Amino acid sequence: MCGILAVLGCSDDSQAKRVRVLELSRRLKHRGPDWSGLFQHGDSFLSHQRLAIIDPASGDQPLFNEDKKIVVTVNGEIYNHEALRKSLSHHEFRTDSDCDVIAHLYEEYGEGFVDMLDGMFSFVLLDTRDNSFLVARDAIGITSLYIGWGLDGSIWISSEMKGLNDDCEHFEFFPPGHLYSSKQGGFRRWYNPRWMSSVIPSTPYDPLVLRRAFENAVIKRLMTDVPFGVLLSGGLDSSLVASITARYLAGTKAAKQWGAQLHSFCVGLEGSPDLKAAKEVANYLGTVHHEFHFTVQDGIDAIEDVIYHIETYDVTTIRASTPMFLMSRKIKSLGVKMVISGEGSDEIFGGYLYFHKAPNKEEFHHETCRKIQALHQYDCLRANKATSAWGVEARVPFLDKEFINVAMDIDPEWKMIKPDRGRIEKWILRKAFDDEEQPYLPKHILYRQKEQFSDGVGYSWIDGLKTHAAEHVTDKMMLNAAHIFPHNTPTTKEAYYYRMIFERFFPQNSAKLTVPGGASVACSTAKAIEWDATWSNNLDPSGRAAIGVHTSAYGPQAFAPIANGKIPSTIINNVPLMVGGGTHGLAIQS
Fold first, then answer.
1. What is the dihedral of CA 427, 428, 429, 430, to 10 degrees?
2. Is 98 annotated as a binding residue?
3. What is the separation, in whole angstroms, between the first and last Cα of the chain?
4. pTM of the predicted model as reported, rounded to 2 decimal places
């Protein structure tokens, strides 16, 4: 991931302003350590910190059209750039960068071209002919982006909050699937898929259609000119990503450059069962597997750095981001600059175990829609910033625009968890890849349920964080929490501890408003709490305080293995709730 920073119409074209923009841009250098670029046109500045993935030799930014009247700074990857280039054959391209198509598309189609882009992206385009500008962010918000307003009338755009928080009177996250046009004078949604409407999908489930759609999503993400790998936790989502990548890597340009043997990465506490599962999958697929261990103290020591880079005080996000942050540093030290990960599957298919309580297919579908639209504040934010902190790019095929359209167009009745029919969570995804002749994964991996309650290994990480927080936050401090933090008041010492660190780095009122809040049980939205009356009395983001969740509520059968895709009735009856989500490659359970 690269870092972009733009200051538009700041009423100051002085050298001092240029120096200030350069200074702020350097705050994003971790995102793009390969090159720095700055373009100035009057009182507008576009800067870029590049992480070179495609065309490392000549793809430096900002990028231009033929006469250099249109200037673009981009963070992301455009996977269909080759097809777009062919449609723009009468244009002259200066580089082989995938992002070079943006300026030329604007020449051809004006502001209506954004939906033609297939990829993850955030960009600022400056048209120097009339000094107008266009800002856009990808459909789901895989790339991070913020917008701010200065007292002098300027508009600021930054990949991270730290690039603009000290210089803007107000700032907020840039909404996914939107563009901001200076010509139109505000935001406009460019991403309007059918699944966002109130209509409940009715397309019958076709396992081969779903399988091919996801294979295509993974294959297009093998576009790279640098070494890469996959994050592998041994769970369903990351294992499928690894399996498809390993199956189709041979014959690609990436394989010709870097070899056809896939590298996989996993991080966890010593002895985690997920480390064992990841190694089993790696052996089955024949990957070069890299297993990284961390201790509770390692994680605690990194908390301040994690909060600075991730830019949140959300408890579950920080818990999951810390091991991913540590793993990304190890990955970068091996010379790898890009990884493919499994975020988004639980949101699309209702993989969190609280979906067992969905009362009907309509509620199930609406909850998946809410979860997908909130990803940019949770798992996308974590995956993007935890890896970018060390100059590593994370690609997420489950959030491919075309795949989401296919998966979200399926009648949600097929996604419903129905133990009497042998359908566990994400059954339609598992079934789509249940190939007897050419198996993608061993059966017990393909039908492996979340193992967040398998033993105390993960709990030692969470309990260690809670113990550490209790040493820094007193009972007296908690009594005054509502007065000190009236917005999103922390209700635990751990939350209070993270909030103190966050506000030390980002003291502005706008900063605290960028972090979501509200009631949640085991990562549910507030609306889903209505599914079970008992949940409203047991609100906890981790789910350990929810009824039927903590390990003490289970007998030996609760941890019985799943056979032939059927989930034990004891688990159904107790409705164990999922903690966090999308921590692919992270062998911890919370």
1. 50
2. yes
3. 28
4. 0.91
Torsion of Cα atoms, 413 then 414 then 420 then 422, to 10°: -170
Q: Is 341 annotated as a binding residue?
A: yes
Instruction: Work out the average pLDDT over 474-496.
Output: 96
Nearest 10 degrees: Cα torsion 293, 299, 304, 306: 50
Active site residue 2: yes
Query: Would you call 16 exposed, middle or buried from its count of C-beta atoms within 10 A (0-12, 13-18, 19+)?
Result: exposed
Average pLDDT, the chain: 88
Catalytic hit among 2, 168, 266, 523: 2
Task: Report pLDDT digits (tens) over 49-84.
Answer: 988 787 777 767 889 999 999 999 999 999 999 999
Is there a cis peptide before residue 486, judged by omega within 30 degrees of 0?
Answer: no
pLDDT, residue 585, reads: 56
What's the CA gap between 373 and 207, in Å, rounded?
A: 25
* Least confident piece of the model among 58-67, 85-94, 567-576: 567-576
- Tell me if 13 is assigned to a ligand binding site: no
Q: Please, is 180 exposed, middle or buried when counting C-beta atoms within 10 Å of its C-beta (0-12, 13-18, 19+)? A: buried
How big is the chain, counted in residues? Answer: 590
d(CA 355, CA 109): 43
